[in-house]
Input
Amino acid sequence: MERPGTGDVIIALTGVELHTNHGVTDAEQELGQRMLFDVEMVPEDVPATEDDKIEGTVDYGAVTEFVAAAATSVRYRTLERLVTVIADGLLERFPVVEVRVRATKPEPPVPFSMDGASVEVFRSREF
Output
């Protein structure tokens, strides 16, 4: 995740834990489950690296609030759709040029032991 001219700043939010109602099964849609979200963003410009002013970076709190609202307001059958909606929304609402969003179900409803099932999407602005 690197775009020439943006510098060396990648903002990452890892392990954002939410209770969501996404999935193929009726139980996932009704009862819901714990889900983890990871977000990486490349900002358009980051003057905070030079002047240390809050206004010169992306508001992590606002990003987290957006992710939480997007992940809990509408139910999707696929994680593919969920992470796409979140990634596209981040590009629309925040001063970032690239985003990567991953959603992980730590206990997916499958008859096998695993650390989790994840879907990740990468989006960038068109110039």
Remarks:
- The first helix runs from residue 26 to 30.
- The domain at 11-124 is CATH 3.30.1130.10 (GTP Cyclohydrolase I, domain 2).
- Helices lie at 26-30, 48-51, 60-73, 79-93.
- Residues 88 and 123 are 7 Å apart (CA to CA).
